Amino acid sequence: MPRTIWSGAISFGLVTVPIHVVSATEDHSIHFHRVHLEDMARVRTRKVCELEDREVDTSEIGKGYEISRDNVIPISDEDLRDLPLPTAKAIEIAGFLPWESIDPIRIGDGYYLAPDGQVAAKPYKLLRQALERSSRVAVARYAWSGRERLGLLRVRGEAIVLHAMRWPDEIRDPSTLLPPPVELTDEEIDGALALMDTMTRDDLDAPEFRDTYTEAVAELIEAKREHREPPTAPAPAAESGQLVDLMAALQQSVSKAKESRGEHADHADVHEMPKKRAAKKTPAKKTAAKKTARKPRKSA
Questions:
Q1: Angle at the Cα of 117 from the Cα atoms of 111 and 122, rounded to 5 degrees
Q2: How does DSSP assign 33-91, residue by residue?
Q3: Contact at 8 Å (CB) between 161 and 112?
Q4: H-type helices in 113-185, by residue range?
Q5: 266-293: pLDDT as tens digits
Q6: Is residue 270 a contact partner of residue 277, using CB atoms and an 8 Å limit?
Q7: Please, are residues 155 and 131 in contact by the beta-carbon 8 Å criterion?
Q8: What pTM value is reported for the model?
Q9: CA distance 223 to 217
Q10: Which residues contact 2 (CB under 8 A, 6 or more apart)?
Q11: pLDDT tens digit string along 92-102?
Q12: Which of 29, 149, 230, 274 is the most exposed place for a label (fewest CB within 10 A)?
């Protein structure tokens, strides 16, 4: 059973759903210790008081807001817990929106909301089924870790999931990052669509969607443990320094994608790459030289 991160309730109008929150994800990446390379002993971070120049225990450490170097205001966990906010003890639903209207860039980590006891079973199921039938998601406010947050509630199977969300002013404007204006041909766009068709998958269970970095790190550790040479990475292809021919690059990408899936051009369930259309020759206009007739000069 995952560890409970937070306990409280979902506030849905006058309906209250007691819940406890657990993480919906697991971290399977490989973690390292900091070590002293001479003797491989652990290197640890020690908490030292700047004034007393001594290591302090965790029980002696709290939060403080620095107004100036000589004026720090202590803030305890109890102070934050007792803030006069309805969101301090509840996930307060503020409204409902279509899922499609939520920009994914605002969505963060996910947490499962589990009903807390038998009393929560019926209102929990009521909210879950209402969300499911409406095809909408709930947007809520809640306060964790010293700040009020925006959250999104949605249905996943039989559970309600809470996603942390960013406030609108936390999203940077990407307009300054856009490339200069360029022109694309219909053939280049069709080529990109053909490549997308070749790379389309039905789900995330395909072998392409696995953590190859963690696998490589595990192989590196195993090789070092057995005192053998670890696998070497293939040498990167040398760059020609020339401008890339988009159509040629797309053609090669489609071919490689088909080969990686064991497909051939005559069996692949994708439309073929568009062929470059021959440029239409515009017939040159015949320009007849205009001869200006000179009038004979009258003799005086």
A1: 85
A2: --EETTTTEE-----EETTTTEE--GGG--EEEEEETTEEEEE-HHHHHT-S-GGGTEE
A3: yes
A4: 121-134
A5: 444 444 555 555 444 444 444 444 444 4
A6: no
A7: yes
A8: 0.68
A9: 10
A10: 22, 23, 112
A11: 999 999 999 99
A12: 29
